[in-house]
Amino acid sequence: MRARPADPRSFPRHLLAATCLAFLAACSSGDGNSAPMAQASAGAVPADGRPFVVEEVAQFNEPWSMEFLPDGRLLVTEKSGALKLVEKDGTTTGIKGVPEVDHGGQGGLGDIALHPEFERNGWIYLSYAEAGDGDSRGAAVARAKLALGADGGGSLSDVEVIWRQVPKVAGRGHYAHRLAFGPDGHLWISSGDRQKFDPAQDMESNLGKVLRLNPDGSVPADNPFADQGEVAAEVWSLGHRNPLGMAFDAQDRLWVIEMGPKGGDELNLVERGGNYGYPIVSNGDHYDGRPIPDHDTQPQFNAPVVTWTPVISPSSLVFYSGDEFPQWQGDAFTGALSGQALVRLEFEGENASEAERFGMDARIRAVEQGPEGDLWLLEDGDGGALLRLSAPPVASPPAAG
């Protein structure tokens, strides 16, 4: 692993006053490429204003998602269809047997999740873009058994598609296809509107929805629209646009963060049967300039808890519970693509607000909490780096005399 050089731009200056014990690190020899705050004193904030040290662990080709294994190793997906295993020393090997993906635009291999009983049954879940007839395509979710090799790498077997977007449509945008297992053991899937707008309100389509399934892909009998037909039965909430982050908080509430149109990125508290209004309402407008009524004009739709205009293009969502940054326990983090930042959100019950924005000088595709409480980020695009964020080291006080 190597430390990232500090980027002194665009970090909140108020962080420098985070503690009365803070000191700046001793100046380095001057090329700007030394590890940030290697000599930090107790409670100090790194000289670039960020309260963490950044290490680059590995690089990938268009990485999209990551998931830690119980032994501390990491799985990373690449949009082209590769699934990589990252060892603790940062070396990477490939996993064979990944389903064929339709790679292009926003599509390709997407999210990855482990079954809650993965250590017993070996099931992993992958989302990806799948080609259909003619020029059509849509997201799919498959589960498979993961077997790891003794010397790295591994393979998938018993691959089975358990869910598909309906209908498949032209274009390669807004798949969303984030995966999460809830505290009740059900599989949750975010399904984007595929840039087709109206299907987000159509209960004969599962586009623009949040879905709740059993781990085998069957539909739970207590879903809110279970009596309205096969597709509607999958739906937990509707009226979403491009929900790219999905996570449960410590109180088992589901939060979804999604890209708005021209303005109006949203953080939503997802309720059973809730309708979040898109494309009828939004706090943004269409890209061609046509206005969309704001949420407050039609209060029958669920309003977002937080909105962003200008947009940040949120890409992921994780609630933090670790000890590496105890001051952030209970907060959430999202990666910002156009915002090129890591954004911290604070919560008070069912209310939330943006607390801090840390410039990362790169589009951030995914954020995860590591097994030791550190934060891990994936940069977007070719050569996208896997970054580990940890608290600054605490140096011993200088010797007396």
Automatic annotation (TrEMBL):
Gene3D superfamilies: TolB, C-terminal domain. Residues 60-388 form the Glucose/Sorbosone dehydrogenase domain. It comes from the Bacteria. Transmembrane segments: none annotated. InterPro entries: 6-blade_b-propeller_TolB-like, Glc/Sorbosone_DH, Quinoprot_gluc/sorb_DH_b-prop. PROSITE patterns: PROKAR_LIPOPROTEIN. This is Glucose/arabinose dehydrogenase, beta-propeller fold.
